[in-house]
């Protein structure tokens, strides 16, 4: 069974986000070994300078890459846009080589360049979403991808 890691900077603060992710965690249990790791955001002052932001991203990036395993897919606006069947194909390809994939979601400041270069970047949309919502959307899309692979009616 494929191992799927979702590495996130920051915690889901609101109960409704946690409940949504928990629902997809439950559903995904039939398809993969899902592991969601929340790493702490680097502390920044109220009005950080570009240098402070870069240093924070580097610190977060080191922690993310230390926990990543298998093929790494950073979520970033510069990444390749996939439709749902495309994500299903990506998961299917990963299943051909038993192992693990890691999806990486950064903080509100994004990801360090070295994280973006650690694997093929994926963009959910040219729009920007809060990282809490991105986590829910990613879980749903991974679930949808497995449903597409199984030819179910979930993806209409």
From TrEMBL:
User: In its keyword annotation, does this UniProt entry include Aminoacyl-tRNA synthetase?
Assistant: no
Q: Which keywords, in A-to-Z order, does the entry hold? A: Cytoplasm, Methyltransferase, rRNA processing, S-adenosyl-L-methionine, Transferase
Q: Provide the protein name.
A: Ribosomal RNA large subunit methyltransferase H
* UniProt gene name: rlmH
List positions binding S-adenosyl-L-methionine: 75, 106, 124-129
Q: Mind telling me which GO cellular component terms the entry cites?
A: cytoplasm
Enzyme Commission number:
2.1.1.177
- What species was this sequence derived from? Candidatus Acutalibacter pullistercoris
**Pfam families associated with the record:** SPOUT_MTase
According to UniProt, the reaction catalysed is:
pseudouridine(1915) in 23S rRNA + S-adenosyl-L-methionine = N(3)-methylpseudouridine(1915) in 23S rRNA + S-adenosyl-L-homocysteine + H(+)
């Amino acid at each position: 069974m494929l191992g799927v890691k979702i590495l996130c900077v920051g915690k889901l603060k609101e109960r409704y986000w946690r409940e949504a992710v928990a629902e997809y965690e439950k559903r995904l249990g039939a398809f993969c070994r899902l592991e969601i790791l929340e790493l702490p955001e680097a502390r920044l002052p109220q009005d950080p300078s570009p240098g402070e932001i870069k240093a924070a991203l580097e610190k977060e990036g080191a922690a993310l890459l230390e926990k990543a395993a298998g093929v790494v897919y950073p979520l970033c606006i510069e990444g390749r846009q996939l439709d749902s069947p495309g994500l299903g194909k990506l998961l299917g390809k990963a299943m051909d080589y038993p192992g693990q994939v890691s999806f990486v979601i950064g903080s509100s400041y994004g990801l360090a360049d070295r994280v973006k270069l650690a694997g093929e970047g994926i963009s959910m949309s040219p729009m920007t979403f809060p990282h809490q919502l991105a986590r829910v959307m990613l879980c749903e899309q991974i679930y949808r991808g497995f449903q597409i692979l199984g030819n179910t009616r979930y993806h209409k």
